[in-house]
Specification:
The structure is a single chain. The protein is α/β, with parallel strands linked by helices. It has 14 helices and 6 strands. Strands 3-2-1-4-5-6 form a 6-stranded parallel β-sheet, with helices on both faces. Helix 11 links the parallel strand 5 and strand 6. Helix 5 crosses helix 10, helix 6 packs across helix 8 and helix 11 runs parallel beside helix 12. It is globular and about 70 Å long. The N and C termini lie far apart (47 Å).
Length: 355
């Protein structure tokens, strides 16, 4: 498989000309300036990413990166790894929560096997397996350097493939028991913050389980001296194949001019890693919702993004991204409105201060 490593200089610049044209179009629509708030900002950003003010979000897909994590051996989850395969199989068959939600918005959903312990043979599963799950990072690094590069490169390649198939915007999702622990560990290392601020209850932990989870993360950060490591090594030491694959997808977005939507906490941490691996990657990210996981807010602040939705979600699978797409459709309908100030022959609103 072609390798894209190193990632630092990948990607292309956002089109400022397309952004200016998109903003002018918004300002010409017969409504109060910035009346749709951050929805307007998001369409302007999409114009810059796509390189045209003719924003197109009509062909979209959510890529659900699925993988198992060896750290589950340390009792940091309610359930064991067999649940990953069960839910991933449902996603591939179109029966999971994200599939149900996407049926109403004409959004395609694809399950990506990045390294599920129990191999799935469902017809809808896209196999990009790196290994049968990662190793237990409390005992050894989760991935080798070769494995983490393969995972990131897979995410980049998938974006290119979906772009070539005609998709104009992509959402990220994940499924993997234990991945709030891996994501919490990656975030703790990259943000130089303790586990108590980065790791929450995930799918549901007792006080004892939460304490164990945080101890596992803090110990790994100390053991591998992760605060001193570059982001790729952090991913290799304590990350997961799903997180590394999503990081690649965010890098791929800036390489191929495709907006890529962040879902919840795990994909947000992948986006953070991508932004540190590739300087231009964050310019092509869209934030869908503010997960209730504790590390979401500092990650968003570091990325400089404000999610549109704050609904205390914690489902994963790309469900937050699924909620965003109908909102973009509605905003685009207004954006393309022919009811301009010029047409109805009234003066435009004037800008007297920054909004």
């Amino acid at each position: 498989m072609e390798s894209y490593y190193p990632y630092e200089r990948l990607g292309k610049a956002i089109s400022q000309e397309a952004e200016r044209e998109a903003q002018e179009r918004w300002d010409g629509v017969a409504k109060p300036l910035h009346g749709l708030g951050r929805l307007e900002d998001m369409l302007v950003r999409i114009a810059g990413i796509q390189g045209t003010a003719d924003v197109d979000v009509s062909r979209r897909a959510i890529l659900v990166f699925c993988a198992d994590n060896g750290i589950t051996a340390q009792g940091i989850t309610q359930t064991d790894s067999h649940v990953t395969a069960l839910v991933a199989d449902n996603i591939a068959k179109g029966k999971a929560s994200v599939n149900r939600m996407c049926q109403s918005s004409k959004t395609d959903v694809f399950a990506i096997d990045m390294g599920i312990r129990d191999t799935i043979h469902a017809p809808g599963m896209i196999s990009c397996r790196i290994a049968d799950g990662t190793k237990d990072f409390s005992e050894e690094p989760a991935m080798s350097r070769e494995e983490v590069i393969r995972a990131v490169d897979t995410g980049i390649r998938l974006v290119k493939e979906f772009r070539d198939r005609g998709y104009t915007i992509l959402g990220t999702g994940e499924m993997g028991i234990g991945n709030t622990t891996t994501a919490g560990a990656v975030a703790a290392a990259l943000l130089h913050l303790p586990a108590r601020e980065m790791a929450g209850r995930g799918a549901g932990l007792s006080d004892e389980g939460l304490c164990r989870k945080r101890n596992v993360i803090d110990e790994a950060v100390r053991r591998y001296r992760l605060w001193e490591k570059p982001p790729l090594e952090v991913l290799a030491c304590v990350g997961g194949f799903d997180i590394a694959g999503m990081a690649g997808a965010f890098i791929g977005g800036c390489m191929y001019g495709i907006p890529v939507v962040i879902d919840g906490m795990i994909s947000a941490v992948a986006a953070l890693a991508a932004s540190m691996l590739c300087e231009r990657a964050s310019g092509c990210m869209l934030a869908s919702h503010m997960s209730r996981e504790s590390c979401m807010r500092p990650v968003m602040e570091r990325l400089g993004l404000v999610p549109l939705i704050d609904a205390s979600l914690a489902l994963g699978e790309g469900t937050g991204a699924a909620l965003l797409f109908p909102m973009l459709d509605m905003a685009r309908q207004v954006y393309r409105s022919e009811e301009t100030f010029e047409k109805i022959q009234i003066a435009r609103y004037r800008k007297f201060e920054e909004i």
